[in-house]
Amino acid sequence: MSARTVKLAVIPGDGIGPEVVAEGLKVLSVVAPRHGLTLDTTEYELGAKRWHATGETLPDSVEEELRRHEAIFLGAVGDPTVPSGVLERGLLLRLRFNFSHYVNLRPVRLYPGVTTPLAGVAPEDVDMLVVREGTEGPYAGMGGVLRRGTPGEIATQDSVNTRFGVERVVRYAFAKAAERPRRKLTLVHKDNVLTYAGELWQRVVREVGAEYPQVEVDYLHVDAATMFFVTQPRRFDVVVTDNLFGDIITDLGAAVAGGIGLAASGNINPEADFPSMFEPVHGSAPDIAGQSKADPTATVLSAALMLDHLGYGDAAAQVERAVAEDLQARAKDGGTRSTVQIGDDIAQRVAEQG
Ligand code: NAI
Ligand code: MG
């Protein structure tokens, strides 16, 4: 790639967010210049601290500023002192929806040297890419409450599935599957019960699949998929699924692939009409915050996804290689390094690759 400056918005957030983001930025600062990339970073204080201080989750003016960046790098937001839903809906989901992050990309990969809770499973058995729809489904915020607090209360939470929304994420998933060696795509849904939405997803996968004859297509109900994630992870290559199912199966995927400290994600707008946002799957982990106990690896791998999205695939591969080496070495060191030490070690390995 030619020399370029990318405007990067950084949202460290709460709890361990700032700790892991610092390590992600450290690794980026080593790898980026080696590929002609300059990151022009601006930090934004959003999350529980700001909400307590000002009552704001995401002021319109800040959203407008964020929009003028090429990418967003986020740690985690949330704290037990903030009512559930305030930051999830007011900040995270608002960014995902308003910036049209219709692809929530979550790789599930077992690196050599990492312990999986699954017996008899080797790294080559777990290498999948979950493409979770990010802007629709039951997370769209459609529905309402009637007669709240009375015995006759009714709450509805509608699942929104548009032809347009399903097709664009399915197209992305097929394109990814076609690029990967196994060329397999599994649709995960529950079309035997959620018949209206399920049939739409099935039909779109069939129609788009006709353009990708080289990609093998499979279908699994979500309940069966959870079973096979554990008993036959080898079945999966690219998985495409709706927002809620994707949220749940990727936590299972993270567990299978060595834990939440390693799980990376990208909230992607593939057309780059809006900045995409890269963040670890985990939250702010208040139980270990401030103790330098958090594993920054998920954040570093999220930075690699960001590099790839920005067109710096070689830089991304370099970071992934450094992480793979670090994870392999970790199997021997007993897992006693601090957050900062792990960040230092990964950055050092990147530097040694030249
Ligand atoms: P969590 O992911 O923060 O923590 C779950 C468990 O995993 C905890 O025991 C924690 O110590 C551990 N853990 C998480 N990340 C780790 C890391 N990098 N290294 C080592 N251990 C790690 O989920 P939890 O406890 O349900 O939520 C805590 C807060 O985070 C809540 O306020 C929640 O709303 C918020 N949250 C925010 C997310 C985001 O910003 N995208 C995503 C998930 C939760
Ligand atoms: Mg989740």
The total strand number stands at 12
Strand count, sense and closure of the main sheet?
10 strands, mixed
Helix content: 40-55%
The level 1 CATH classification of the largest domain is Alpha Beta
Low-confidence stretches: none
Summarize the helices and strands and which ones pair or pack.
Layout: E1 4-13, H1 17-31, E2 37-43, H2 48-54, H3 60-67, E3 71-76, H4 86-98, E4 103-109, E5 127-133, E6 137-146, E7 154-160, H5 163-179, E8 184-189, H6 195-209, E9 216-221, H7 222-231, E10 238-241, H8 243-256, E11 264-268, E12 276-280, H9 297-309, H10 313-333, H11 339-352
Parallel strand pairs: 1-2, 1-3, 3-12, 5-10, 8-9, 8-10
Antiparallel strand pairs: 4-5, 4-11, 6-7, 11-12
Helix pairs in contact: 1-9, 1-11, 5-6, 7-8, 9-10, 10-11
Bound molecules: 1,4-dihydronicotinamide adenine dinucleotide (NAI) and magnesium ion.
EC number: 1.1.1.85
Cofactor: Mg(2+); Mn(2+)
InterPro entries: ICDH/IPMDH, IsoCit/isopropylmalate_DH_CS, IsoPropMal-DH-like_dom
Descriptive report:
The protein is α/β, with parallel strands linked by helices. 42% of the residues lie in helices and 23% in strands. The protein is built from 11 helices and 12 strands. The strands form 2 sheets. The chain has a 10-stranded mixed beta sheet with strand order 2-1-3-12-11-4-5-10-8-9, sandwiched between helices. The relative contact order is 0.18. The chain binds 1,4-dihydronicotinamide adenine dinucleotide and magnesium ion. The site of magnesium ion has 2 residues, from helix 8.
